[in-house]
TrEMBL record, chain A:
Family recorded in the similarity comment: Belongs to the GMC oxidoreductase family.
Keyword Oxidoreductase attached: yes
Keywords from the named record: FAD, Flavoprotein, Oxidoreductase
Origin superkingdom: Bacteria
Domain Glucose-methanol-choline oxidoreductase C-terminal stretches: 443-565
The name this protein goes by in its record: GMC family oxidoreductase
Domain Glucose-methanol-choline oxidoreductase N-terminal: residue ranges: 232-342
Gene3D superfamilies, alphabetized: FAD/NAD(P)-binding domain
GO molecular function: flavin adenine dinucleotide binding; oxidoreductase activity, acting on CH-OH group of donors
UniProtKB/TrEMBL annotation, chain B:
An example Gene Ontology molecular-function term: iron ion binding
Residues involved in heme c 3 binding: 310, 313-314
Cofactor(s) needed: heme c
Protein name, entry field: C-type cytochrome
Binding site for heme c 1: 45, 48-49
InterPro entries reported for this sequence: Cyt_c-like_dom, Cyt_c-like_dom_sf, Cyt_C_IC, Cytochrome_c-type_DH, Membr-bd_ADH_cyt_c
Amino acid sequence: MARKLPPVDVVLVGFGWTGAILAQELTDEGLEVLAIERGAWRDTPTDFPTTTAPDELRWYWRKEMFQNNSRETLTFRNNRGQTALPMRRWGSFLVGEGVGGSGVHWNGQTWRFLPSDFVAASHNIDRYGPLPEGMTVQDYGVTYDELEPHFDRFEKLCGIGGKAGNLNGRIEAGGNPFEGWRSAEYPNPPMHMTFSQNQFARATAELGLKAFPGPSANMSRAYTNPLGCQLAPCTYCGFCEKFGCGNYSKASAQTTILPVLMKKPNFTLKTHNEVLTITLDKSGQRATGVRHVDLEGNEYEQPADLVIVCAYALGSTRLMMLSGIGEIYNPATGEGLVGKNYCYQVMSSAEVFYEDKYTNGFVGAGALGMAVDEYNGDNFDHTGLGFIGGGYIANWTTNARPIETHRTPEGTPTWGSAWKKAVADNFLKSTSVGAHGASMAYANNYLDLDPTYTDVYGRPLMRMTYDFTPNDMAMSGFLTERVREIAELMGGREIKLNPREGPYDSMPYQTTHNTGGTIMGTNPTNSVVNRYLQSWDVPNVFVMGACVFPQNAGYNPTGAVAALAYHAAEAIRTQYLRSPGPLVQA
Amino acid sequence: MSAPLHASAALAALVLVAAPLTATAQVNSFAQVERGRYAVATGNCEGCHTAPGEPSYAGGRGLETPFGTIYAPNITFEPETGLGRWSKDDFWRAMHEGKGPDGSNYYPAFPYPHFTKMPREEVDAIYDYLATLEPVRKEKPENELPFPMNQRLSLSVWNWMFFEPGVYQPDPEKSAAWNRGAYLVEGPGHCAACHTEKNIAGGDKASEHLKGGQLDNWSAPDIRGGEGGGIAHWSEDQIVEYLKTGRNEHTAAFSSMAEVIEYSTQLMLEDDLRAIAVYLKDLDSDARQPADRPGEPVMTAGAAVYFDNCSACHVADGSGVPRIFAPLSGSGKVNDPDATTVIRVILEGARAVPTKAHPSPLSMPAFDWKLSDEQVAAVASYVRASWGNAAAPVTADEVAALREALQPTVQ
């Protein structure tokens, strides 16, 4: 029998980036906020100090940084004809757990989506005609202009380093000329580039492309954010993605918000408690709070006026399904919306090997790189190409972590002494150019509940049905050719191309950019949440995270996730609290 | 009778009963209570009189002295366990003479040799402020002192030798700011309690005033700011910034000084912090004797440990990242003739005090599990002899002794 706890104004399910942002915003409004996190308290000096942060074996290979999938995981299959099996070990993506969420182990590549990305359906239909059969791309219901101040806010919170390419409509030399307008320059200058980025800049210039520094949440200099939190200059150690930063040099909830938030008397954090379900009243149209369980198995009813789901794209979608809010999507009938439009990211790359030049990839950082954006979104004419969307192409030097990094030229055996020699010969003399491709929604890529497998509490696991689509393959093929052109001009001895080949394989690491499932949109017939991320069905439930993306753009998602969270927080503060109820009339 | 009327009748009765108390409350005007609140901040009362995780001012916190553990009492106005039955005269006597209401002597862990410099009105204001706090019932644990230290009578002798009661007398030769600073440093601020070396009986060595001391396995650095002093290279502005925000270009506060900043100096008026700076900058010292430089093998070993473990934050040339990671070059703690704090920080790590100005509790990790006594000694010796620093080398035995002293005692 669940014990009933005293009510709070707001309960946050999950305490990563979006949970911390919402907690900070709503406690500022004077609300009593409780965050419930299934994982542990984590902080820099106690959990990832410099003395243990760069432990590749522990954090990445033994997966200590991520969600424990012996308690809960996903099942996976490529298509509806297959039987999904549980992912017993993370591979293609790495779901976080604990305070700070996946935002502890991100690289820090902090992009804004293009203005046209938010109107991907109407924009592309206008320009190229109807979408192909099976493609379920749609507009976000919110525009770039509306989100601009919120992108700006997040960039200042994090101390993003970069160079503006479009300052209030004026194109700036050295920045990304394709980006949406910015109301201000980045708060910090770009990172220091290395030999590889210089080669990339030279090669792209030769092709008439405009290279610019990747926007980075690794600090290019000491920074104090608007809350007074201090971040230290990055040391370029190359332990960002898959690791916590020991040097206070990477923006995360821990380094940018928690020092201030944790001191507030109207904020409470409860760790090691998992929310089992959002509880609804008899009408099913109002949430009464959540039911959660601690590690000893004791269950609690936590009443709250407002429930905000901040449990990562996959966790949030599953919680909506388990709570019975909205109808679960069924691809056979096209009915239902929860779980629809699951998208990912379509990556491909080329490696460049030098004969006598040292790239020294161990001097790295998660967002140390140069990029070009000519082939992203609708920055180029897609007429006759057979796909929509695109991706940025970049040369990042994120790391040369010794267990993970072993680039070898074409034709090298995959093991044995010849392999070892090739690794040793090329370790300091290679780099890579990658395409970060968008992922367009299709009717057959979706999430639902698995009919067979359950988690440690007996709840059905979520089932992922996903494969690369015809649009993905055509787009990635095009981008990979552009990658090849650039790589070939970077002055190396040889290159090796790694095109994206289907079917999608859930094991090799690609990116932790899972999107869709509780998509946002203009009305309740096409979306789970409205433009303020408010549930159409239960208006005192809001859902944060990339699960609200109707499809994924050719960028890393964190910037857009945070901007949408700030946009939602503002709507709650200025509209919802005055008059609790639907913020958009259906 | 309707319910609201009934309630107001009851309220009227309550007011009548409470009338004598109301009269007292009127005397304690807002201004008086605020004066007391500020005076409490200047004396950092909260720091010692609050046990971790317990209600503020309810006492119970142990102060480790060379003679044993002395517990701070409850100073809320709870009648049984706190000051609830004390008169203003009782409180004055405690602060001015170091004696309890029954005439018994306090241990000078309670810094009455400093508080005696506070004028009566200031002490009364503290009393009035403490009277406004929520009373908390909390017994003080027994002090853990061996014979004869547990005989309070012995304190009469101590007082006779080291204690002279008397309110601060301004020096007419000096500026108003200097006098205010001297009052704050020597009176309520009781800086010498940590920053002055003690004699064998625990009294301050007058000749060593504010030249650094040792307490509870920490060495507190020399804070004299005049020529030859430990912070001679700090400007007045830098002293003010440090006391206000917990950081300045040279260093960041942690450990005991973190508490002082958290509960005391960050709450003080900038004029007062400037007065402290004016006073400290006027304290000259004799030049320090240059220390011996470690041998080359130690410097080589120390440099290797430093580059692998320390340089990412403290930077290859010891310049650190001001206000984020402490510079080691020119650091008062690093150059302290007493290396206790340097060794201890390497072993245990340190946490910069989060303040209103700088809320991030930036921390250095512990290296005790990673570095041997020899490695700690080598790297400590290296930083104490590099980049303009010139303090004596550290031996592995010193490291081992401190490591042993810091082991948690098994109860």
